[in-house]
């Protein structure tokens, strides 16, 4: 109530999400095609398309047939890893593991970025090991494509009116009232994540790959991605409302679950960048066998 009074005093009316006319999917009559599903599909397809362009450059560590395998296994890793990660990190008392029928009901929502990342890493390990590829260099190429999916996914979160931010006041002109977030204005943290984890990281990674020789320093692109995405997520978590079942955890520990999970990723990223810069760059790279 105090926040609403302050908003009125400041002369700013919060934006109401419902007034934006957004819908969470396309009604096809027999079922609704969710935008969240389309976001996953768009990110994966665009990433695959971009990877096929990247590997045409001299010195690519993989060939087209390897990219095709990665497209399949990374898709599985994103879906399975994202869901299992949510069940492990965010499901109260491992509820989803104790109710496996609900675990496979992906249409009810609940995906973890860190779980999806682990799934992608396992897919990279499998494809690289099976084909004798340099895992670190393959990871460099894949890391450039990940921000596409991050951008689309976070925009889909906003369109769905979910994962909104913490309560704020009228000093934030873009504060929004979300239908499931109560009457108080909140940070549209989904858009913050889309901008930092998606758009900003996309620009950084694309410039490094296409405008520099970073791809000839094994692990550099992976390290930059891991560090950047961790810093972005850590900062945005200060504006994002913790999951209801984990609010007590955040109060007890001082950080949200999302922030705790970014710390080891950040350490890994900084170590990978340091290692890559200390080693001499490859002369031309090593082309993969077609």
From TrEMBL:
HAMAP family: Lgt. InterPro entries: Lgt. This is Phosphatidylglycerol--prolipoprotein diacylglyceryl transferase. A 1,2-diacyl-sn-glycero-3-phospho-(1'-sn-glycerol) binds at residue 154. One of its GO terms (molecular function) is phosphatidylglycerol-prolipoprotein diacylglyceryl transferase activity. Pathway: Protein modification; lipoprotein biosynthesis (diacylglyceryl transfer). The keyword Metal-binding does not apply. The keyword Transcription regulation does not apply. Catalyzes the transfer of the diacylglyceryl group from phosphatidylglycerol to the sulfhydryl group of the N-terminal cysteine of a prolipoprotein, the first step in the formation of mature lipoproteins. Belongs to the Lgt family. It is found in: Cell membrane. It comes from Novosphingobium album (ex Liu et al. 2023). Pfam families: LGT (PF01790). Its EC number is 2.5.1.145. The lineage of its organism: Bacteria, Pseudomonadati, Pseudomonadota, Alphaproteobacteria, Sphingomonadales.
């Amino acid at each position: 109530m105090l926040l609403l009074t302050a908003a009125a005093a400041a002369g700013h009316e919060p934006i109401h999400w419902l007034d934006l006319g957004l819908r969470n999917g396309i009604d096809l009559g027999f079922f609704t095609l969710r935008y969240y599903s389309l976001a996953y599909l768009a990110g994966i397809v665009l990433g695959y398309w971009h990877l096929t362009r990247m590997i045409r450059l001299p010195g690519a560590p993989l060939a087209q047939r390897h990219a095709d395998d990665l497209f399949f296994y990374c898709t599985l890793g994103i879906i399975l890893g994202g869901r299992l990660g949510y069940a492990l990190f965010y499901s109260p008392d491992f509820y989803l593991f104790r109710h496996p029928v609900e675990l496979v009901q992906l249409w009810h929502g609940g995906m973890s970025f860190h779980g999806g990342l682990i799934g992608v890493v396992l897919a990279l390990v499998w494809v690289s090991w099976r084909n004798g590829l340099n895992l670190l260099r393959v990871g460099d190429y894949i890391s450039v494509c990940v921000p596409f999916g991050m951008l689309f996914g976070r925009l889909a979160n906003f369109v769905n009116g979910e994962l909104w931010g913490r309560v704020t006041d009228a000093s934030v002109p873009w504060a929004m009232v979300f239908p499931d977030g109560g009457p108080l204005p909140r940070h549209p943290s989904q858009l913050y994540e889309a901008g930092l984890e998606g758009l900003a990281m996309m620009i950084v990674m694309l410039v490094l790959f296409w405008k520099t020789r970073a791809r000839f320093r094994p692990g550099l692109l992976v390290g930059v991605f891991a560090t950047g995405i961790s810093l972005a997520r850590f900062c945005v978590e200060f504006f994002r409302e913790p999951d209801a079942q984990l609010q007590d955890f955040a109060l007890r520990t001082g950080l949200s679950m999302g922030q705790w999970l970014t710390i080891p990723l950040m350490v890994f990223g900084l170590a990978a960048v340091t290692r890559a810069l200390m080693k001499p760059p490859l002369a031309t790279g090593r082309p993969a066998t077609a």
